[in-house]
Amino acid sequence: MAAKEYTRKRTFVGRIPHGSDLLNSLTDFVKEKGIKLGRLQMIGAVQRAVAGFYDCEAQKYENFVFEKPMEVLSLVGNVSLKDGQPFIHAHITLSDEKGQSFGGHLMEGTIVFAAEFIIEELEGENLEREFDKTTGLALWDI
Ligand code: ZN
After folding, report:
1. Residue 121 — very low, low, confident or very high, per pLDDT cuts 50/70/90?
2. Is residue 15 part of a domain?
3. H-assigned helices in the chain
4. pLDDT on residue 90
5. Chain-centre distance of CA 132, in angstroms?
6. What angle (nearest 5°) sits at the alpha carbon of residue 9, between those of residues 6 and 11?
7. Domain span at 57
8. Which of 4, 9, 11 is nearest to 119 (CA)?
9. 51 located within any domain
């Protein structure tokens, strides 16, 4: 295991506007606030959702689209740096009108119905994502 130690800095609590793209809105927010590292959580509802599943063999994401309103039971993610810019990695768990759950890696194209988020900024050494040959993913350089 490898880890670095950080301390908590600012905490932001907010809403994301109806009709906006969830991932892009969160990314714009962390860039605007200069948040380089942090954790995020969100609950609410979406009008449609796009989630990804990472195919380990092919080393690429397969996206699936939910073209219907769904609850966001949980969105958990983190903020770190990729190519020197704040970057969000988040996973979303959704439920439909029968309470069935789906989820995956949050992708662009997920449209907000209502969203409440909390972002906790962390302070310490910069944490950059770097390409990892073994997985084909941009992972933390720890
Ligand atoms: Zn992911």
Report:
1. very high
2. yes
3. 22-33
4. 98
5. 20
6. 125
7. 11-124
8. 11
9. yes
